[in-house]
Amino acid sequence: MDSEGIGATAQDVQRQMALTFGHGDHAVVLELLRRMEADVPAHSVHRVQVAALLVGRGDLEDLRSQVDLARTDYRDVLVSAFYRD
Question: Of 35, 44, 61, 64, which has fewest CB within 10 angstroms of its CB?
Fold first, then answer.
């Protein structure tokens, strides 16, 4: 995976989740991330999930907001995570 999340894998999602959320939150985080899968193109889902985790910064409510945003337009989550500057 590069600095823009391109080529992100399920392992990258797991790694980012472990870095940003405590172990006790992982079940909730995974459920939130799964919610976006039907609304994000399959080739981008892991990249968007990593982006949501980055922007969520370990806060479940922030992550929930990013998941909701991704379900509306996943590109907004990518911009927030990788193209802000």
Answer: 61
Give me 50's structure tokens: 């990593």
Tokens of 31: 């459920």
With the CA atoms of 9, 32, 53 and 25 taken in that order, what torsion angle do they form, in degrees rounded to the nearest 10? -110
pLDDT at 4 over 80: no
pLDDT digits (tens, 9 = 90+) for 21-59: 999 999 999 999 999 999 999 999 999 999 999 999 999
What is the total count of domains within the chain? 1
**DSSP string for 25-37:** GHHHHHHHHHHTT
DSSP annotation of 22: -
Amino acid at 83: Y
Domain assignment present for 5: no
**b/e sequence 40-58, b meaning 16+ C-beta within 10 Å:** beeebbbbbbbbbbbbbee
